[in-house]
Amino acid sequence: MWRPPERIRHQPSFGHVPSAAQAAASRLFSSVPVGALTLAQRTWVPAMVPWRATEDGFVTGDVIDWYARFARGRPGAIVVEATGIRDIPSGPLLRIGHDRFLPGLHKLVEAVRDASGGKTKLLIQIIDFLSIRRRPPKDKYFQRFLAITDTHRRALATSDDNEVRAQLFAMSDEDLAQVLTPREFESYQFGDRERVTDTHLPHIRDLQRVLPGLFADAAARAKEAGFDGVELHYAHAYTMASFLSRINTRDDGYGGARENRAKLPLEVFAAVRERVGKDYALGCRYLADECIDGGNDVADATYFGVAFARAGMDFISTSRGGKFDDAKQPNVGGVSYPYTGPSGYECMPQYISDEKGPFGRNKAPTKAIREAIHAAGLSTPVVCTGGVHNFEMAEAMLADGACDIVGTARQSLADPDWTLKTQLGLGASVRVCEYTNYCEGLDQKHKPVTCKLWDQVERDDTHTKRTSDGKRRATAPAWDPATGTPG
Ligand SMILES: Cc1cc2nc3c(=O)[nH]c(=O)nc-3n(C[C@H](O)[C@H](O)[C@H](O)COP(=O)(O)O)c2cc1C
Ligand code: SF4
């Protein structure tokens, strides 16, 4: 992962540890309405892909254990990982693009309900993404993948395509950059990646016709499976975020000006709302800042936040960065990963950082979005995530008006009981996330995600379930709230 050149080390801490009585009187542990739902507290576990689904997208016992473990800590809400809305092979990512996925998803809902004693609300994040290919070996790219055009023939002064391919193969990267178009050069260096602006491709040109129905069908399944709500994934490097992006120059009314870029996200929302009804919690996750050159900034995000709130979303959750545009070049045979460049750093900042540090980087832009929503006369709850790892930080964000609900991804992974421990006045026993991004490294390799603070603990017990490679414990060690000890 890219890291800021300053390389300043920042130290996460417990912050002020409240007593049980202080926690009970706090904002963080007060209830909050999210559309027709009420969260018992303002703690939220945002979506995190743990790489535990089957190769064809079904819920496994490991998926259930993963979410049940979070649920034992009884956060206000958990959002299940990005789950694909299409019925197409997507590797071990959860899928919801067909009714055959329903029984597994239903079991997952039941497991979370049981493990949290009905206290935690369960939402699911639903996603669409475009195709991306592995970085090709040079010979394959020039012998098979590249479509030879007149530009290449002219540049190389031959009409024999085999000769063109042979000449290109023999060229240095510097020379290739002169002969290939920027897009061809990128496909050669990174692997081919579709964009929403590829409107010469019929399936991309028709996205606005197809996606509202696909999202609506997926959300209807989520409702049928028993989820309490749905989060539309409009963030990071995926289709809907790409429609919102300033980089989206589609000229069919769905790109260019902000209102055009918001059009499909709003149409998707309207289609989903119509299908799931007014009384079903429905919101989106999107970027408070794309953190890339020429991408959306806070002013764009503020505009979209108000538009989403006006349209009737029940919540708005923010993230930042996480784009392909500035990702590191993958090795030959590898796939580009949108969290390897500066924008990826903004999404999941590490403890080695710049002066701003890794904690709360998304606070100021999210506050601006929330203020704009309020200025528009609306009070849609806003979830802010990024580097939050203790009660003091979370409470300050709520007190400052940065958000209504506090998302903690890696801190919840490090210690799924952190909110329960804090609520019981046992905050000094929280395993505080160190922000080393060991978990993110596993995510990048599509390996089962675990936390380095617990994956080697008690792993030799016969009752401790391990990851599929047998090397690490699969979920955080148990903790017994009745005794305050490992259970
Ligand atoms: C292993 C892992 C998987 C993630 N998967 C998703 C995902 O499926 N959808 C999403 O919106 N964000 C995803 N994220 C980003 C987190 O939700 C969160 O925004 C990010 O980690 C920053 O928050 P934090 O500092 O509290 O960890 C993932 C993060 C991690 C560490
Ligand atoms: S591995 Fe654990 S401690 Fe390290 S960043 Fe991930 S959650 Fe935090």
What does this protein look like?
With 487 residues, the protein is an alpha/beta fold. It has 2 domains: 344 residues, Aldolase class I (TIM Barrel); 53 residues, no CATH class. An 8-stranded parallel β-barrel has the order 4-5-6-7-8-9-11-12, surrounded by 7 helices. A two-stranded antiparallel ribbon has the order 1-10. Strands 2-3 form a two-stranded antiparallel sheet. α4 packs antiparallel against α6. The longest helix is centred in the middle third of the chain and has 19 residues. The protein is globular and about 80 Å long. Flavin mononucleotide binds next to β5, α18 and α20.
Summarize the structure.
The chain has helices spanning 20-24, 61-72, 102-115, 138-145, 150-156, 161-170, 173-179, 182-190, 202-205, 207-225, 239-244, 258-261, 263-276, 298-311, 342-347, 363-375, 391-399, 410-414, 418-423, 438-444; strands spanning 8-9, 32-34, 37-39, 43-45, 77-84, 121-127, 229-234, 281-287, 315-319, 352-353, 382-385, 405-407. The chain has 487 residues and is of the alpha/beta class. Strands 4-5-6-7-8-9-11-12 form an 8-stranded parallel β-barrel, surrounded by 7 helices. A two-stranded antiparallel ribbon has the order 1-10. It has a two-stranded antiparallel sheet with strand order 2-3.
